[in-house]
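Quick one, probably user error.
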């Protein structure tokens, strides 16, 4: 496993991380994750990832409404200082509304610390509030700075819904990290200048959804998902478009000992501003497969260019999703 600096925070993270949305499990208020999970299997996945050198774990207070954080406490109760835990606050419930007032994010942090069984979080992120709300609530950033001064968090970041919001977060508010959707079929973070801004200002990029909600692994053949799986709420035409995407990239692996998952992860890691990529993990085998990408030769400039050309010449999103 290779390690990278998390921007200018002074924190070092494994370049392959572990997204914990899925292990939070299903909730009672709709299709808000990937459906039912088994806690024993989730704990095995967390421990296997740690054994493989994965040290970066991204979570949120709404992943299973705190259950993912509780699993992290159980998995790493004897290894807290050896892992980097990033959590988030801002959603009142899945899908909104948001509250990023100092009082609310302070309350959420204290509850997160209790669930994690720790007295600090390495990275604390605002969880995808509209940038307009951030502009209206600048005191939230001052509160994050206070938390850092108190030692309750080591760094603060912004998890964005729209990549353009990350530029505002970095350039107007000094956020130290930005978490953003980025993968072979969603390169908006590059297009809008977010990566350039991050590199110029020393902010770390955390790339989420590297597999495009699982589609870029090539393993999804049936686009009819369980009603508890959030993908069941997407239009069928969009799901078909994503399901067809892997065949466009598969020729790049011809003659190479490399899976589509390897290709997807390595593409994200080909960009200097990216500190870590955080695929979701449900099973130990997935942790094993993800960690493999770090040990393979990096993509060549020609391979990266070929992937970008495929992206530019195909429409992978409905227009409404690309705004």
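Nope, works fine. Designed sequence:
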């Amino acid at each position: 496993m290779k390690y990278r600096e998390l921007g200018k925070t002074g924190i070092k993270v494994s370049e392959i991380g572990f997204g914990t949305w899925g292990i939070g499990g299903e909730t009672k208020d709709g299709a808000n994750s990937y459906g039912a999970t088994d806690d024993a299997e989730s704990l095995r996945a967390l421990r296997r990832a740690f054994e493989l050198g994965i040290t970066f774990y991204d979570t949120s207070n709404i992943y299973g409404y705190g259950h993912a954080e509780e699993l992290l406490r159980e998995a790493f109760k004897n290894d807290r200082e050896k892992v980097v835990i990033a959590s988030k606050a801002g959603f009142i419930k899945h899908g909104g509304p948001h509250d990023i007032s100092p009082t609310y994010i302070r309350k959420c942090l204290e509850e997160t610390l209790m669930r994690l069984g720790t007295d600090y979080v390495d990275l604390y992120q605002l969880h995808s509030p509209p940038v307009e709300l951030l502009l209206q609530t600048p005191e939230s950033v001052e509160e994050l700075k206070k938390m850092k001064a108190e030692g309750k968090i080591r760094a603060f970041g912004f998890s964005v819904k729209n990549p353009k919001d990350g530029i505002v977060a970095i350039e107007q508010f000094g956020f130290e990290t930005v978490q953003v959707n980025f993968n072979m079929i969603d390169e908006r973070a590059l297009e809008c200048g977010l990566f350039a801004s991050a590199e110029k200002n020393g902010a770390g990029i955390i790339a989420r959804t590297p597999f495009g909600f699982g589609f870029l692994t090539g393993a999804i053949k049936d686009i009819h998902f369980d009603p508890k799986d959030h993908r069941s709420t997407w239009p069928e035409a969009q799901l078909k478009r994503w399901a067809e995407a892997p065949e466009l990239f598969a020729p790049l692996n011809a003659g190479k000992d490399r899976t589509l998952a390897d290709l997807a992860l390595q593409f994200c890691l080909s960009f200097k501003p990216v500190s870590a990529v955080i695929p979701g993990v449900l099973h130990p085998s997935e942790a094993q497969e993800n960690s493999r990408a770090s040990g393979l030769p990096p993509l060549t400039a020609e391979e990266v260019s070929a992937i970008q050309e495929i992206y530019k010449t195909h429409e992978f999103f409905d227009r409404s999703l690309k705004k």
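The longest strand covers residues 121-127.
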